Amino acid sequence: MEKSQHVDDSQDILNIYNEILASKYQVTSLLNSKDLQSKLSESIYDAILLDIKMPEISGADAIKIIRDDSNNKNTQIFILSADDSSRTTVKFLKEGISDYLTKKMKEEEIIIRIKNGISKLNNRHEFKKGNLSLNKYHLRVDVNEKEIPLTLIEYKLLLFIIENDGKIASREETMKYVWGKELISKNVLNTHLFNLKQKLEEWNFEIKSIRFRGIVINSK
Asked: Percentage helix, strand, coil, to 5, in the chain?
């Protein structure tokens, strides 16, 4: 389930909108906006809803904190405010938020707007190859719509191989992409490739090692 964070200085508002969103999203709430930065370091969110008039941190400052966070710099930001003036709406849209929501909107409209914003995020970061999908934002891989748990090394290996899109990648190129300047033996690479292949048995493509040439994916 997609995750959202709701930041508002009113517990009543948090309760009302968290109940609306709970049917579609895993929602966490934050009453004290001063804690926003520490909360961002704990998780990656698909959407963050912000009030613009909070006593500790302004909406504009909260947006900057989110954009400066390495985990959530691409998270979809939604303003949720009682202020429905066009001047304020335009001001925050210029800040690069996904959408400006007002508390006068109906529940269904709010959910649809948030869903559309998250869909844009996923579309920008998702690759598909056969029955496999890879989401670069969430570091998630699914085969037949079932999540496949990969280590970070296995994930980076798969991403590099897919991005080569059928071209043979040398082992040296592969190791440089995955491990950078760290010196790694080809036996270590072979072990990770073997484990990755085992986990992706149901993928309708296969990872092949071509002797003296490198690694490639082919349809089964």
From this structure: 40, 25, 35
Angstrom distance (rounded) from CA 61 to CA 5: 16
The structure tokens 């970070």 sit at 152
Query: What does the alpha-carbon distance between residue 140 and residue 125 come to, in Å, rounded to a whole number?
Result: 11
Residues of the domain holding 81: 3-124
Residue 137: both structure tokens together: 């934002």
CATH (domain of 195): 1.10.10.10
Q: How far apart are CA 220 and CA 203, in angstroms?
A: 9
Reported pTM:
0.58
CB 66 within 8 A of CB 58: no
User: Are residue 103 and residue 139 in the same domain, yes or no?
Assistant: no
pLDDT digits (tens, 9 = 90+) for 18-41: 888 888 888 888 888 888 888 888
Tell me the C-alpha distance between 213 and 167, whole Å.
11
Q: What angle do CA 126, 128, 129 make, to 5 degrees?
A: 150
Length in residues, the chain: 220
Residue where a domain terminates, one of 71, 97, 124: 124
Output the 3-class SS for 187-213: HHHHHHHHHHHHHCCCCCEEEEEECCC
Domain end, chosen from 124, 157, 174, is at 124
Task: Give tens-digit pLDDT for 139-150.
Answer: 789 999 899 999
Q: Are 211 and 148 in a shared domain?
A: yes
